[in-house]
């Protein structure tokens, strides 16, 4: 760390990841109004990954071993295809605020996967057992999730939420959590932006393959794309994938992981507010109560967990953290 940043610089940095990453779900919602979801995501990460790779190649040299390419390709598949791709698909019929709240339970899945399902990656050993406070946070988070979408699923979507897309968001959380945990055991380039570029580039390949398989290219016509969707797509590239991620890496160097991890429960608040303000998405009493319960659960887990478990280490900072693009999709 060559110098200590000013208080103002830190405030601006945190404000950036709070607002920018909180707004990416709104951006996705607008983009997929007229753009096919997997094709949109593929183009987004292809452009962002190419920009980062070109910058690294010119300024520092792009260096990665074969294993690092393979490991980061797997991470890209989990985070960007399984995580961001499913979120983009779900947001065709799910309000951005609801999608954000559902994805915000990712830390709950991370804790559970770390505890019981990672023996394969951890030399046959389980992760650390959650303490009582963490279990309380998990219970709160899932209670909030059930309150948020449970009644709608049981009634077959009569409240306006597509049950299939809700299930898709739950799987997005699982993929994001698995991808985030896999970064602990994957081989990472010394330069975090190199790993991010590989994840974005290879993630775009996986997304494009799914897009082709779904027939998105066959049915796609530029004439159907609105200006709002194009601007939203560009916003996701510049702010969500470039500015947001760069700020995240900078904060990881100049602040503590526990402080940086606060984006996990600030972003949903920002996203719900922006969805209401810009897209007039309704916020009923049930949504407000569920939001408070989910955010409280995530906050308890964030405080209770060891700092090393809370956030992705700087060398493994992932391309979709907080998006996800959460995978962190955000």
Describe the overall structure.
By secondary structure, the protein is an all-alpha fold. The chain has 14 helices and no strands. It has helices spanning 7-31, 37-59, 66-90, 96-103, 106-116, 132-154, 163-182, 192-213, 216-219, 227-254, 257-260, 263-279, 285-304, 307-310. The chain is globular and about 50 Å long.
Question: What is the structure about, briefly put?
Answer:
The chain has 330 residues and is an all-alpha fold. The protein has helices at residues 7-31, 37-59, 66-90, 96-103, 106-116, 132-154, 163-182, 192-213, 216-219, 227-254, 257-260, 263-279, 285-304, 307-310.
Query: For the terminal residues, how far apart are their CA atoms?
Result: 27 Å
Oligomeric state of this protein: single chain
Percent of sequence in beta strands:
under 5%
What's the alpha carbon Rg, rounded to whole Å?
19 Å
Topology:
Layout: H1 7-31, H2 37-59, H3 66-90, H4 96-103, H5 106-116, H6 132-154, H7 163-182, H8 192-213, H9 216-219, H10 227-254, H11 257-260, H12 263-279, H13 285-304, H14 307-310
Helix pairs in contact: 1-4, 1-10, 1-12, 2-3, 2-8, 2-10, 3-7, 3-8, 4-12, 5-7, 6-13, 12-13
Keywords:
330 residues, 0% strand, disordered C terminus, 14 helices, globular, mainly alpha, single chain
